[in-house]
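User: Watch each token:
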Amino acid sequence: MQLKIALLGGDGIGPEVLAQSVKCLKAVEETFNHRFIYHEAPVGAIAMTSTGKPLPDETLKLCRESDAILFGAIGALEYDNNPEAKIRPEQGLLKLRKELELFASIRPIRTFPTLIHNSPLKEKIIVNTNLVIFRELTGGIYFGKKTISADGTIASDLCEYSEQEISRIAHLAFKAAKKRRKKLTLVDKANVLESSRLWRKTVTEIGKSYSDVELQCLFIDNAAVQMMLKPDQFDVILTDNMFGDILSDLGSVIIGSSGLLPTASVGSDNAMFEPFHGSYPQAKGKNIANPIASILSTAMMLQHFGMDEEANAVMSAVHKSFVKKVVTPDVLGSSKYGTEYVGDYITENIVDSDENFNLNEENIWLGKSTII
């Protein structure tokens, strides 16, 4: 297979972790006889330095013309320390999602047996965690009209959703649930918000077409508590943009590191794959950033194009790095291995078959049944 892949390293540790993903893809090319064509482009703070825009027109054009996008991270300290800046690096990512209509963020959260002690939560609480969050990505309060009074004392953010926006991601989530454990949890705030009431009405109606899937509705505050008390009760979580942002952060607590969480952002015509973590500018250039989330996101990209064996080979190599404790310091607390070494180790262990680390059952965790 031949694919054109846009590489958007972005800021901070983004280029470093993305470089490890590219190493893995080159190993997949060689092992499985594929051809991937890579094109790099700036986004975020680094793009603002050269073009004045967090998402340059040429970068957007490249993304539109590519089969897939691999994204690093976005954000810089000079903007973090200046919350009043009118143009911010993060706006580049929001615009990219909106322009490409990447309406569904798919985020699997699963504990790895070999890393179970990495979590701050008790093992008995998290041991069987295996869920996936479907977060609506292009609507809601993040994209609604924003106002502030002339004297700066009154502000508002509009949370607006249409039935069509809710419906398209709801169908994806229900289809995923059908192929998993047949349970979908809608997270909203329908006791207070009119937009949440529309979510609940729409999703409940759609649920009638998926009679074999159990639909549960939870308020966001209760859902957050339940994720910390008993995360294994969840299978597929469906929610809006802001609530999905909140619950995804809890996922990093469950597994013990945001450096282990991959993400797929998909639409009808485009797809982007990125690690969950931010740009972590304090670690830039120190060779300590965890590349696993970026590499697992790359495995999700392979599955998106039906390359299940190839994705499994990447996942198996990652699992082997866990078993052999070839990980960065954030995972085990102390480690002699850096970003480059971990990336090289995983790359060298990508093979077409490995009886000791064959993880076919991981396909569902990676999102095989959800990415289209």
The CA atoms of residues 87 and 183 lie 41 Å apart. The two ends are 17 Å apart (CA to CA). The longest strand covers residues 2-10. Residues 1-105+271-372 form a domain with the Isopropylmalate Dehydrogenase fold (CATH 3.40.718.10).
